[in-house]
From TrEMBL, chain A:
Chief location bin: membrane
Protein name, per record: Sugar ABC transporter permease
Localisation: Cell membrane
GO cellular component: plasma membrane
Keywords, alphabetical: Cell membrane, Membrane, Transmembrane, Transmembrane helix, Transport
Family: Belongs to the binding-protein-dependent transport system permease family.
Membrane-spanning ranges: 13-32, 75-96, 108-132, 162-183, 219-241, 268-292
Topology term for the membrane: Multi-pass membrane protein
One Pfam family from the record: BPD_transp_1
PROSITE patterns: ABC_TM1 (PS50928)
Originating species: Nocardioides turkmenicus
Keyword hit for rRNA-binding: no
Domain spans labelled ABC transmembrane type-1: 71-289
Length: 302, 288
């Protein structure tokens, strides 16, 4: 009892008890499974029997056409979502943040833009799948028809599928990115703009010379989460194509390939190699970002 | 950029025109963004097979609209409300657990100095940004090894100490005056008594924001439950709805109306607590 009492009052022991759940989580659900994956990636697993095969899985991976196709699809999606989901929300956030226009309309706009983020990827995927139906009566084909074009078989062709995926991403994330940028903009001191106005800078100049430079940390952050989100995209494609297979694998992503080999085909060794490559890529980006943004310096200085 | 000439001729729109152009743009975008949900809502009054065959469409045959789907949803003894109840149960339990465990951990990081703190905190920062998808396979292998597939505990346990939530709470706790904690110690409270009796009540807004954020994420959680759950009686809403999308189920009415109905709890919460949603969503961006 005395020991317990002392433990409860001890400021030395307390922090370890407080952070224990995190340490356990880190060990049991991150480091151990990751180590296991790493080990599995050097093995061939057949009917639960594992045999060490060295780097053969990585060799197979390197020569695997489908893996590179999946990599290409993921990278392409990542680049395009960044190209769309940074500038557009940035401009929209600037519009909301400007002093002109009706505040009520802005509030309604902001709230409406956020609503898609509330929908699950399942529901959003179902809706977009039905909007991009290949029949002439589908919503997107009706819109295309207004411009006098023939119905498009959206999800059967590579570009069509890509457009559907990007539309889905834009729909769900534009509002969230607006919130990020808005939060960043509202932390820029008003005096900067007042000084610029006195100097006769136009609103456009103020945007480029005050807003953008001061938003850099937010832009870096949003870019980083977009890199992860883009590279790890899977469910959007899974829902849009009603499963993990798409015509000519046009919707196959790296995670989709990992899912196919590891979970659908139970080829754990090979899938683990895919997983390890992905972990390495993502961690490299992660560390680069944290170093560039100076987080390490700040944390160790505390 | 070249130096601006001292005098410029600038096309300056009249103030009111500028404002109304902007307002018009925002209103059009609002409509575009809400359109998919509105059209889906109209589809809940239509024949499900028809919608699946023709796609979501703007031209709706008014005579075909009926409340049949609503009657079906609320009178059929199908699995839908079982999934709904499962989702609610899982969300409530997991949110409560995540808030408790994560705030607990965050407090450890916020108020104490201890060996290994920096390294562990960097681990939190790293985990914050790692997408779950890359842990999907390792965790799946682990769960199958220990034979815990098809159980709710496996869905919940790995995510109780959630990095983003820990980070958010830590930032919040850093702002609590140390004097307040000292006063508690003077009164003879244990370190844990201080946390539960002094810190938690002060941090109510942080708990609200994180409850909303986690609630939304968990309500919509799809990939991990998809890998873990096997039996239909344990399905959550997203998993159940996904099974309706397969052609042989042929229950498209339920798919459409069920999808829309599953949005309701989150939408209601959003309308009631919008500012907590915003605080929660932007939590990660407020680093440093």
């Amino acid at each position: 009892m005395v020991v317990v009492r002392r433990l409860l009052y001890s400021q030395k022991a307390a922090p370890y008890l407080f952070i224990a759940p995190f340490v356990i989580t880190l060990l049991a659900f991150w480091l151990l499974p990751l180590a296991r994956t790493f080990l599995l990636s050097t093995q061939e697993v057949v009917f639960g029997q594992a045999a060490f095969i060295g780097l053969d899985n990585y060799q197979r991976l390197w020569e695997d056409r489908l893996f590179w196709k999946a990599m290409f699809n993921s990278a392409r999606y990542m680049v395009l979502t960044i190209a769309l989901l940074i500038p557009i929300p940035l401009v929209l956030a600037a519009l909301i943040n400007s002093k002109i226009g009706s505040d009520r309309v802005k509030a309604v706009f902001k709230a409406s833009m956020f609503v898609p983020a509330l929908t699950s990827v399942v529901v959003a995927g179902i809706i977009f799948r039905l909007m991009f139906a290949e029949t002439g009566t589908g919503l997107m084909n009706q819109i295309v028809g207004v411009f006098g074009l023939d119905p498009v078989r959206w999800l059967r062709i590579d570009t069509g599928g890509l457009i559907a995926l990007l539309a889905l991403a834009m729909w769900r994330w534009t509002g969230v990115n607006i919130l990020y940028f808005l939060a960043g903009m509202q932390s820029i001191p008003e005096e900067y703009y007042e000084a610029a106005t006195i100097d006769g800078a136009s609103r456009l100049q103020q945007f480029f010379h005050i807003t953008l430079p001061n938003l850099k940390p937010t832009i870096v952050y949003v870019t980083t989460i977009s890199i992860y989100g883009g590279l790890a995209m899977f469910l959007e494609s899974f829902m849009l194509y009603r499963g993990n297979s798409s015509p000519n694998d046009q919707g196959l992503t790296v995670i989709g390939y990992l899912y196919r080999r590891g979970i659908e085909q139970n080829d754990l060794g090979f899938a683990s190699a895919v997983g390890v490559v992905l972990v390495v890529v993502i961690m490299a980006i992660n560390l680069t970002f944290l170093t560039l943004s100076g987080t390490f310096k700040k944390e160790s200085a505390r | 950029m070249s130096a601006e000439p001292a005098t410029r001729t600038r096309i300056q729109l009249p103030y009111w025109l500028h404002g109304s152009v902007q307002t018009a743009l925002l209103l059009v975008l609002t409509l575009v963004v809400l359109a998919p949900l509105l059209i889906m809502f109209v589809a809940t009054f239509q024949d499900g097979n028809d919608v699946i065959r023709r796609g979501l469409s703007l031209d709706v045959d008014r005579s075909s609209l009926s409340l049949d789907n609503y009657v079906m949803l609320f009178t059929d003894s199908g699995p839908y409300f079982r999934w709904f109840a499962n989702s609610i149960l899982l969300t409530v339990v997991q949110v409560a657990g995540t808030l408790l465990v994560s705030s607990f951990v965050a407090y450890g990081f916020a108020v104490y100095e201890f060996k290994g703190k920096t390294a562990l905190f960097i681990a939190v920062l790293l985990l914050m940004a790692v997408p779950f998808e890359i842990m999907m396979l390792p965790l799946y292998v682990l769960v199958n090894d220990v034979g815990l597939d098809d159980s709710y505990s496996v869905i919940v346990l790995p995510f109780l100490a959630a990095a983003v939530t820990i980070f958010y709470f830590r930032q919040y706790f850093l702002g609590i005056p140390k004097d307040l904690l000292e006063a508690g110690r003077m009164d003879g409270a244990t370190e844990f008594g201080i946390f539960f009796k002094i810190v938690v009540p002060v941090a109510k807004p942080a708990f609200a924001a994180m409850a909303i954020l986690n609630g939304m994420i968990i309500w919509n959680n799809f990939l991990w439950p998809l890998l873990v759950l096997r039996s239909e009686s344990k399905f959550t809403l997203p998993i159940g709805l996904n099974t309706l999308l397969t052609p042989h189920e042929n229950n498209y009415e339920l798919l459409i109306i069920g999808s829309m109905f599953s949005l309701l709890p989150v939408l209601v919460l959003f309308l009631l607590f919008q500012r907590f949603f915003v605080a929660g969503m932007t939590a990660g961006a407020l680093k440093g």
